[in-house]
Design a protein that fits this description.
With 278 residues, the chain is an alpha/beta fold. Helix content is 35%, strand content 16%.
């Protein structure tokens, strides 16, 4: 099985060691199967997206010794996102919501048919009162699940999993201030780019249920997934931009050996990976 993988960073902060590991894992999974490794810049985060950082990302990947094919950035794909959102609205699977996050999180939970509790639905509670009022498009997860039926997906480490996106409630697919949420944009992009194996950190495994539902609703191919281990700091916390984790660019400018670092990360991956189907 030949895999097409991707590394898709957002230019809202510098890359750190955790990003390097994700990129190395994606590139290695493609190499091992005679596939292809893609780079996609996810640059629709409004004013937080800084175009100059995309060039820094490319330099970081070159420093690590990785080779890739770059596909169009998200900012070039807005029409595709709008068309998908319009289709879901026409199908009655999303609804307009002008409420704030605190309004929605304060709702009473609702119960599923098996007695499980799920986040409350704001449907019909916070409709925009005028054409000028900003609104988000939220997925009506109950209606969507009724349409889709039972959903399963394949993770290379965890095996076959059942998707139940109701645990996340009626997630936002189009934000008030942005043309698409991560869930909608990345799912559409992966399909358009022919990504057949999505590699990402194991902290994101639960949220995979949301793109799996979108695959069904939008008639998209379903990729396989590989959720890899995380790089953590001395306190056991995962590295992140928001916590100011040291930047790869600083290590690159200090003339550290990027290819040696990539070899270390590759060895870490092989030591922990369960390479089912490769």
């Amino acid at each position: 099985m030949s895999f097409v993988t991707r590394f898709a960073p957002s230019p809202n902060g510098p890359l750190h060691l955790g990003h390097a590991f994700s990129a190395v894992v994606a590139a290695e999974k493609a190499r091992m199967t005679g596939g292809e490794f893609l780079l996609r810049i996810e640059d629709i985060d409004g004013p937080r997206s800084r175009p100059e950082l995309a060039n820094e990302f490319r330099r970081d990947l070159e420093w690590l010794g990785l080779e890739w094919r770059e596909v169009p950035a998200q900012s070039t794909r807005l029409d595709r996102y709008r068309a998908a959102a319009a289709h879901l609205e026409e199908e009655g699977l999303v609804y307009r919501c002008a409420g704030q996050r605190r309004d929605v999180t304060g709702l009473e939970p609702r119960r599923g048919p098996d007695g499980s509790e799920y986040p409350g639905s704001p449907r019909g509670l916070f409709e925009p009162t005028s054409v000028a009022e900003p609104f988000a498009l939220r997925l009506d997860v109950d209606a969507a699940m009724e349409r889709a039926g039972e959903l399963v997906w394949e993770d290379e480490r965890a095996g076959t999993l059942i998707a139940d996106p109701r645990e996340f409630g009626d997630v936002v697919l189009v934000r008030k201030d942005l043309p698409a949420s991560y869930h909608l944009a990345a799912t559409l992009d992966d399909a358009a780019d022919g990504v057949s194996l999505v590699t990402r950190g194991k902290d994101m495994i639960a949220t995979t249920t949301i793109p799996r539902l979108l695959h069904s609703l939008l008639g998209l191919p379903v990729p396989r997934y590989f959720h890899h281990d995380l790089i953590v700091d001395d306190t056991g916390e995962k590295l992140s931009k928001s916590r100011g984790s040291p930047a790869l660019a600083d290590r690159r400018r200090a003339r550290e050996d990027g290819r040696a670092l990539a070899r270390q990360l590759r060895d870490k991956f092989h030591a922990s990976a369960i390479n089912v189907g490769t």
